[in-house]
Specification:
This protein is α+β, with helices and mostly antiparallel strands. The protein has one domain: 2-Layer Sandwich (Alpha-Beta Plaits). It has a 4-stranded antiparallel β-sheet.
Length: about 110
């Protein structure tokens, strides 16, 4: 899996590091994804350095579900380890629903 992570990170002294995963889920697959997201949250809470796992959803006009997921980490190294070796939101979406995220976006959380 190619990594969307940056080679260099911020010089700001007080930030945390996140990866945003954005996907559109067909409505008929949403129920399975929803349950899997709950299980995934329980699973990744055990990973060292995880600060938060936030999920936002919106029903679109075509009744599909627009999903925005963010995992936030203490260090960029922990984020990279999760992305390279952990069970990510991206992997779960592909495994459960055959849905590939449109966007994977590394972010720096300032506050």
């Amino acid at each position: 899996m190619a990594t969307p992570l940056r080679e260099t990170w911020s010089v700001l002294p007080y930030v945390s590091w996140s990866i945003g995963t954005f996907a559109t889920i067909p409505f008929d697959r949403w129920e399975g994804i929803y349950g899997s997201m709950q299980a995934l949250k329980g699973h990744i809470q055990e990973y060292p350095g995880l600060q938060r796992f936030d999920v936002y959803a919106q029903i679109e006009e075509d009744e599909n579900v627009r999903l925005h997921c963010f995992t936030t980490w203490d260090t960029p190294e922990q984020l990279e380890a999760y992305y390279e070796r952990g069970y990510t939101v991206e992997r779960m979406l592909v495994d459960i629903a055959g849905v590939r995220p449109e966007t994977l976006m590394p972010l720096e959380k300032i506050f």
